[in-house]
Design a protein that fits this description.
Largest sheet: 2 strands, antiparallel
Helix content: over 70%
Keywords: Membrane, Metal-binding, Transmembrane, Transmembrane helix, Zinc, Zinc-finger
Radius of gyration: 32 Å
Subcellular location: Membrane
Protein name: Ring finger protein 121
Strand order of the largest sheet: 1-2
Strand content: under 5%
Number of helices: 10
GO molecular function, one term: ubiquitin protein ligase activity
Distance between the termini: 71 Å
Membrane topology: Multi-pass membrane protein
Shape: globular
Length: 326
């Protein structure tokens, strides 16, 4: 009989605990429901606000694109200088903010050597060896950035297909490695082409066979390269030991190294002397060399993304803040 009483008492205690647990969960459920209702009330009408923010973004992108195109057409020199400055400084801000010290060290080394080369290219009178020095440096950076970008792209693709597991590399490590190399290659590829274009303009104007507007100040001899101002010793029909001589469709001849640096590294698609359009497909008839042209076009497109996209996003956020949009 006592045992029966104990069981009944124990059962009553368990029942009380169950009632307490149920009663304890009811306020919690009610609290979550009220919190959910408050969130709905807070964000009620935000669909229209988000639509306004999207329209502001699209309108700002369109207007900014039109203004940038007009600026580039009317004042190309100032546009290129401002774009180059932003390309050079904007990543530095994020590097210091996010503590990317490896990128900062490489950036400092690149900036130091490029500053020296740019200083040499802008001196008057121009030293005879300077054009070759400038094109060698920027062509070296161009090739390194091209190879780095290719390796980074392959690393990303291998990670997406799971091939990193064959080498026992974690997916996150392999993806970080690929994206980092891809970023390094594209960023320094864009930066060196902008610096090379600026240096090419200064050197060609100093030599006198090229001017941005008007006719050249010197007459070009058939035995002189208009890019570097040096003598041409190898005939077009001959095979050179170090480099060949290249003749454009306008019949002006140049050192092959100089005209390739002028067109690919310096982003020029006209003759350095008469400004006739250069047929890049004819110049790079070898199919293995044509990817360099496409890579250069990709870098030109990325310049807008790196230099002006953060500015446009900042303008959009400022407009949203003024209008009270969250």
């Amino acid at each position: 009989m006592a045992a029966v009483v104990e069981v009944e008492v124990g059962g009553g205690a368990a029942g009380e605990r169950e009632l307490d647990e149920v009663s304890g969960t009811q306020p919690e459920t009610e609290g979550r429901g009220s919190e959910h209702a408050r969130m709905h009330a807070k964000h009620r009408g935000h669909e229209a606000m988000h639509a306004e923010m999207v329209l502001i973004l699209i309108a700002t992108l369109v207007v900014a694109q039109l203004l940038l195109v007009q600026w580039k057409q009317r004042h190309p020199r100032s546009y290129n200088m401002v774009t180059l400055f932003q390309m050079w400084v904007v990543p530095l801000y994020f590097t210091v903010k996010l503590h990317w010290w490896r990128f900062l060290v490489i950036w400092i080394l690149f900036s130091a050597v490029t500053a020296f080369v740019t200083f040499r290219a802008t001196r008057k009178p121009l030293v005879q060896t300077t054009p070759r020095l400038v094109y060698k440096w920027f062509l070296l950076i161009y090739k390194i950035s091209y190879a780095t970008g290719i390796v980074g792209y392959m690393a990303v693709m291998f990670t997406l297909f799971g091939l990193n597991l064959l080498f026992k590399i974690k997916p996150e490590d392999a993806m970080d490695f690929g994206i980092s190399l891809l970023f390094y290659g594209l960023y320094y590829g864009v930066l060196e082409r902008d610096f090379a274009e600026m240096c090419a303009d200064y050197m060609a104007s100093t030599i006198g066979f090229y001017s941005e507007s008007g006719m050249p100040t010197k007459h070009l001899s058939d035995s002189v390269c208009a890019v570097c101002g040096q003598q041409i010793f190898v005939d077009v029909s001959e095979e050179g030991i170090i480099e060949n001589t290249y003749r454009l469709s306008c019949n002006h001849v140049f050192h092959e190294f100089c005209i390739r640096g002028w067109c690919i590294v310096g982003k020029k698609q006209t003759c350095p002397y008469c400004k006739e359009k250069v047929d890049l497909k004819r110049m790079f008839s070898n199919p293995w060399e044509r990817p360099h042209v496409m890579y250069g076009q990709l870098l030109d497109w990325l310049r807008y993304l790196v230099a002006w996209q953060p500015v446009i996003i900042g303008v959009v956020q400022g407009i949203n803040y003024i209008l009270g949009l969250e």
